[in-house]
Amino acid sequence: MKKLTMMALAGAMISFTASAQDSAVTDDMIEHANMLGQNALKSSLTEDIITSLTTEVGHRLAGTANDKKGREWAMAKMLAMGYDRVWEEPVTIPLWHRGSASVRITAPYQQNMAIVALGNSVRTPEGGLTAEVAQFDEYKDLVAAAPNSLNGKIAYVSLRMDGSGLKGYGYAGQARRNGSVAAAKAGASAIIIRSIGSDDNRTPHTGSMNYAEGVTQIPAAAISNPDADLLDNMLKYGEPVTIELNMTSHSHDPVVTYNVLGEITGTEEPEKAVMIGAHLDSWDLATGALDDGTGVSIMMSAGKHIIDGGIKPKRSIRVMLFAAEEEGLYGAHEYVRAHKEDHNDFGNTILGAEWDSGTGRIINIAPGVGPTSLNVVREMGAVFAPYGVSTLMTNTAKGQSDMSALGNAGMPAVNFGMEPTNYFDFHHTPNDTLDKVDMPAITHNAAIYAMFAWMAATVDVDYQK
Ligand SMILES: [Zn+2]
C-alpha cells in the first residue's frame, strides 16, 4: 500500500516521503546517502581543495600556461584521491591575450577611468583612439542606431545591471556579448560599456564578447560602475565628451586545451554515467575562486566522499571539469560534438548537474527529466529536505552553464538553486579571490552533490522516460 505524504510550500516546493518497498530510492540508499552527506559536512576537504587551487595555480585563462597548470593540478589531485579513471579530452579554442587597457576622458574635464578589455576583443590602433562618446541607455537603443550614425565615435552603453529585477545579468549582459556588433554596424570605432556587475568598486568586470562575420571587429571594454557614474554625470552637461582609449588585447591562432574528467566506475552499467561538473578555466584578473573554483572543489570533493563511502554506484559518476567556459562554453560544446559524432555515445551521459554559481548555499533542486522518472528525482529530493533543500514543482531544467549545452542536446539535467549572494559584486573582477568564499556553504554544497550523484547513479531509473 503506497503511503504518500505530500506537502506543498508556497506553491513552489514539494517533498515526498514514501515507504521503502514502493520507492525506487530504497531505505538502504537513503541511509548510505545520509552517511555520505554527514561525512562531507564534517570534512574540510572542499575548503582544502579550493585553497590549494587558488594558492598553487591561480588564474586559469583558457589556453595559457596557467590553464595547463590547472589541468595538471586537477588530474594529480583526482588520481591521488582514488578516482578509478582520470583523463583529458581535447578542445580547440581561440587563444586570447589581454594585453593592457587604459582610458582617459580628455574633454570637457580630464579624468582617468578604470577599464578592462572584454574577452576576445581586438586592440585599438597604434597610438590609441580618441573620439567623442555616443551614449546609449541600453543595448536595444544601440541596436536601433542608424548605419553611419556613429561614424568616428565610441559607443557607450550606460545601463546598470539590476541585481534582483528584470534587467539582471542576462539582460544587461547583452551589451557586453553583442554590443560591439551593434556599434560597428552603426559605424562606431570602439565600444565601452558600464561593467556588468552589482558593486560600487573601481574594479571593472570582464567577460566574453562576440564578433559577427562580415561586421568590422572593433575594440570592446568595460569601465567600473563608479567611472560609469562619472561619465554619465559629465554627459549630462550636454557638451561633447571625448575619450582616449588604448588597448593591446589580441587573439592568436587557435590552440588545444582539454576537458578533464575523473570517474568513479559503476558496478553494473559502467558505460553509463551521471555527470557532475564545473568549469576549470577562469578569467585572468584574479584566482577564479568564486568563478568557478567553488564548483571545481565541490565536484572533486563530492567524488572523494563517494569513494570514501565505500559503496560504488551502479552506473559511473563522472566529475567533469570543463575547458574554456568563459570564452563561450567551448569544452561543453566539444563534448557534445565528440560524443555524438566521434564516439556515438552521448546518450550514455544519463543525467547532469553543474555548479557555476559562486558561494551560495544550495536551497533547492529543479528537475529536468522524463515524466516517469520525475517521481524518482522527487524521491531523491525528499532526502535533501532535512538539509534545507527543497524540490521545485517544475520539470524544465536544461542544465546550468556548461551543462546547458548538454541539456539542450538532449541530456536530462537537474539544476541546483542557491540562496542570494553578492556574487555579481566580484564576478570577473580582480576581487574574485578566496576570501569571498563561504566555506560552510560550499561544504554543504559538496555534501548535497555527493548524496545526489551517488543516488542518481545507483537508483534503477531511465531519466529519459
Ligand atoms: Zn563560471
Task: Based on the coordinates given, report the CATH architecture of the largest domain.
Answer: 3-Layer(aba) Sandwich
The main β sheet shows up as: 8 strands, mixed
Q: What would you report as the Rg, rounded to the nearest angstrom?
A: 24 Å
Instruction: List the strand order in the largest sheet.
Output: 5-4-11-7-8-9-10-6
Bound molecules: zinc ion
Helix percentage range: 25-40%
Termini separation: 24 Å
Task: List the total number of helices.
Answer: 12
Low-confidence runs (pLDDT<50, min 5 residues)?
Answer: 1-20
Q: What is the structural class?
A: alpha/beta
CATH level-1 class of the largest domain: Alpha Beta
Q: Roughly what is the average pLDDT, rounded to an integer?
A: 95
Query: What name goes with the CATH superfamily of the largest domain?
Result: Zn peptidases
Total number of strands: 18
Structural features, described:
- With 465 residues, the chain is an alpha/beta fold.
- The protein has 2 domains: 4-96 and 254-458, Aminopeptidase (3-Layer(aba) Sandwich); 99-248, 3-Layer(bba) Sandwich (Glucose Oxidase, domain 1).
- Helix content is 33%, strand content 26%.
- It contains 12 helices and 18 strands.
- It has helices spanning 27-42, 45-56, 65-81, 139-143, 169-185, 225-236, 289-309, 330-342, 374-384, 402-408, 423-426, 439-458; strands at residues 4-9, 13-18, 85-97, 101-107, 111-113, 115-117, 129-136, 153-157, 190-194, 220-223, 242-247, 250-264, 269-279, 315-322, 349-354, 362-368, 390-392, 413-418.
- Strands 5-4-11-7-8-9-10-6 form an 8-stranded mixed β-sheet, with helices on both faces. A 5-stranded mixed β-sheet has the order 1-2-17-16-18. A 5-stranded mixed β-sheet has the order 3-12-14-13-15, with helices on both faces.
- Helix 9 (374-384) links the parallel strand 16 (362-368) and strand 17 (390-392).
- Helix 1 packs across helix 7 (289-309).
- It is elongated, with a radius of gyration of 24 Å.
- The two termini are 24 Å apart.
- Mean pLDDT is 95; it is low at 1-20.
- The protein binds zinc ion.
